[in-house]
């Protein structure tokens, strides 16, 4: 193939799209504005940089929809999942990675690929010709976002995504904290002790909630509204919904036994997850926040074990823009008004690293088929990949469209399998068994078409 595919954005989606297209023989140029043009959330110019959590979430491909998506991407030779497994850290049943080596490996793989060129420039307008994938993610530059809005004639939707703080391990008081994964989950000792736990009594929890609610928060710019994605709510917003909300969310004490005081069950538990292979950094799980930096330090140091905590990174908050994909994209993820422009990743209204990379994988393969004069068969809606792309390109209600993680609620029912909580395990296994068979059949069919 002699035609060029241009990809705007070198995050999860852009990196995966480039890898898929280049491996199919297409010449690819990745246009990444970093490090020349910085964002407040990124620290490097690496491709595939993780700016929030270091977790790809559950790796369980039999009982979890995101774990199934991991599996499907691995079957398709996905760069992001392959690299994640090379740099994984103990995290119970989750797939967490050492974020810097992970991004460095993604960058090197793309730099070394003979069919890929990387251009570190900012694209500020929508190209009028050529073949393009726009995978600029939640931090799309202002100029390009304005160009997209002008072209589509639709308001870009937005919510605010929050970043959790990271603590230096050596500053944590292990006389109060202990290592344990919830329900001792994991096949190895490292997995079963992947999380660091800080217990709270009822009095400590109540004082923490009081301080959290009273803490000074960042203010929004004029015209902005706090339309948070429910899967990434700041902890103070959760606390505002009810004083017990955090005890049933990121601070739930279930499945944990205080190693220092096994006879007394904690009223609440704050969990931290290892953020690098050396084990020198831990991020506070689920503690996305919009508190000001000074307030964060004082409030978080109320957590038993973190009284002397030193922070490698404090929490933050940023605007996350995405398009109304059900009204703007066709089933090939192309902009209906300009079909030479294909969108992928978080800007399409999927939420999460895994979902973003998955949509990049699919966009890359769709672009290869189009440039070679073929049309791929629709991805079965019974697969995780198909359920997700169906949702964003027409399955969702356009009037109420919001970012979505992959979940079994997007899958069509399996005949003969009962609903309800009691049958959930069997139902999820039926979903994943069916999805795996259908995904492998689709991959085989697309490979035959390519041949």
UniProtKB/TrEMBL annotation:
InterPro entries the record matches: FAD/NAD-bd_sf, MnmG-rel, MnmG_N, TrmFO
Pfam families per record: GIDA
Annotated binding of FAD, by residue: 9-14
Transmembrane segments: none
Top-level taxon of the source organism: Bacteria
UniProt-listed Enzyme Commission number(s): 2.1.1.74
Top EC category: transferase
Reactions it catalyzes: uridine(54) in tRNA + (6R)-5,10-methylene-5,6,7,8-tetrahydrofolate + NADPH + H(+) = 5-methyluridine(54) in tRNA + (6S)-5,6,7,8-tetrahydrofolate + NADP(+); uridine(54) in tRNA + (6R)-5,10-methylene-5,6,7,8-tetrahydrofolate + NADH + H(+) = 5-methyluridine(54) in tRNA + (6S)-5,6,7,8-tetrahydrofolate + NAD(+)
Organism: Yoonia phaeophyticola
Role this protein plays: Catalyzes the folate-dependent formation of 5-methyl-uridine at position 54 (M-5-U54) in all tRNAs.
Cofactors, names only: FAD
Localisation: Cytoplasm
Protein family (similarity comment): Belongs to the MnmG family. TrmFO subfamily.
Keyword Disulfide bond (UniProt): no
Entry annotated with the keyword Methyltransferase: yes
MnmG N-terminal domain sequence ranges: 6-374
The protein, known as: Methylenetetrahydrofolate--tRNA-(uracil-5-)-methyltransferase TrmFO
